[in-house]
Amino acid sequence: MAADWTPIENLPSPRLESLFADDPDRLTKLSLDVAGLHFDWSKTHLTAEAIAAFEALAKAQDLAGKREALFAGEIVNVTEGRAATHTAERGEGKAEDVSLARTFHARMRALIDAIEAEALGPIRHVLHVGIGGSALGPDLLVDALGRESGRYDTAIVSNVDGVALEEAFGRFDPAATLLVVASKTFTTTETMLNAESVLEWMQEAGVEDPYGRVIALTASPDKAIEWGVDETRVLPFMESVGGRYSLWSSIGFPAALALGWDCFEELLDGAAEMDRHFRLASLSENAPALAAFADLYYTQVRHAETRATFAYDERLRLLPSYLQQLEMESNGKGVTVDGRPLGRPSAAITWGGVGTDAQHAVFQLLHQGTHLVPVEFVAVIEAGDTLAEDHHRALLLNAFAQGAALMKGRANEQDPARSYSGDRPSSTILLDVLDARTLGALIAFYEQRVFVNATLLGINPFDQFGVELGKEMAKAAGEGGQHFDPSTEDLIKRAFGDN
Above pLDDT 90, what percent of the chain? Predict the structure, then answer.
């Protein structure tokens, strides 16, 4: 039986300023502090009535039961008949899954120790090839936390476009490069082609044993060994860890190597703290749940088609890209868990940008355009630079002022082109400091927010069949066994001729 969305769809839409005027305690009621993160949803249209309606929906959809099933290692990925054990990677889950994750982590740490001791020769460069979750997570971690690390020069290459690889080749010495191949199945077409090209680059440079410089990160260790990787250099992870949830597993190897094992453990600890909060806090005081309630309010009540995240910190510049995959690959679904048409909007289109750059590029539409776009600001109190305080102060003040301006607006009857309607929602996530612990908590928050959204919609956030069709057709086209529409046939002919 489908859940009753009527109470939610009939929620009123009062103006934001009136909500503050009517409730002096609104800020307190809609703010939370968890794991070094401060959350503020007071400039959204959430109300006590709205939260109560979503809590009723959560009960009808058995959010509590499904949350326990997630942490208990039960089958929650129903279309593939699997559990989703990414929380076990950070110590929160079924005992057997946590134990296996720790075993795999110990293997990863031992290999890192060996590399640091130069057991694989002098390594200065790490070239990580993967795609999707096998690249976005490690890239985010290294870029956010590794800017001052002198341990290893690390490049994360995902694009099959050879330009991306050649850029790394131009920076790295093949004799001092470690190749890390990240693929859950160890059959991912783009990743394996990139890996083969790296090996050719090493061979052409005279590296005697290129395969001796390869580390495999995979849930299919037999395939990695068959491909040529020594068994001692294969770092497995559980099949039940989805790609976009995998940075906590051996997929995080390049980050653990570049940042140090202590940093990686702090990342896991921060995520575990957010997991415990999500598991134990009541929904009205639960950060992932409240964020999901706001998401669903805007997609289901106000019919917003997109949601934007702006990182007011250069170190988090890759966060919007990371969230695009996490949210849209997880919840961009058109059917429910039992295969029926969803019949309502699923995930919003996730997009975003970085700090004041975005203000001078896209905020025109956010303030005066015809689209309603809920905005999320992510900022850090402690500066990441050593320049004069003016820089970071200006950065934060811009973030805070943009949220205030979106809400307040400014009427101008004499000059409509300079009129701002206001009543445009935003939320803010403010980190005390950007370190491994708070970044781990932040990413885990987004993961659990996705889970709540999916559960209330009745969809499965852990499969991703939508990525398969185009890849299958591309492979068939390359093998000459696929006929396309006239437009596509013409494009192929123009690019490759009659061959």
Answer: 89
Q: How far apart are CA 77 and CA 51, in angstroms?
A: 27
Nearest-10 crossing angle of helices 436-457, 133-145: 140
The one catalytic residue among 92, 327, 329, 447: 329
Q: Which domain holds residue 448?
A: 6-81+266-465
Residue 50 and residue 181 in one domain: no
Question: Is there a catalytic annotation at residue 471?
Answer: yes
3-state secondary structure 203-221: HHCCCCCHHHHEEEEECCH
pLDDT of residue 474: 85
Q: Are strands 31-34 and 37-40 parallel, antiparallel or unpaired?
A: antiparallel
Active site residue 329: yes
Nearest to 31 by CA among 380, 376, 290: 290
**Active-site annotation holder among 118, 303, 360, 468:** 360
Sorting pLDDT into bands at 50, 70 and 90, what band is 151? Answer: confident
Report how many domains make up the chain: 3
- Full DSSP string of 87-100: GGGGT-S-HHHHHH
Exposed e or buried b for every residue in 411-428, given b needs 16+ CB within 10 A?
eeeeeeeeeeebbbbbbb
**1 lies in a domain?**
no
Question: Of the residues 471, 472, 489, 493, which is catalytic?
Answer: 471
**74 is known as an active-site residue:** no
Residue pair 267/437 in contact (Cβ under 8 Å)? The answer is yes
Q: Which of 216, 236, 262 is at the close of a domain? A: 262
Query: Do 251 and 352 share a domain, yes or no?
Result: no
* Residues 368-412: tens digit of each pLDDT: 999 999 999 999 999 999 888 899 999 999 999 999 999 999 999
Instruction: Report the distance separating Cα 224 and Cα 47, nearest Å.
Output: 52
Residue 170 within a domain: yes
Split at pLDDT 50, 70, 90, the class of 1 is low
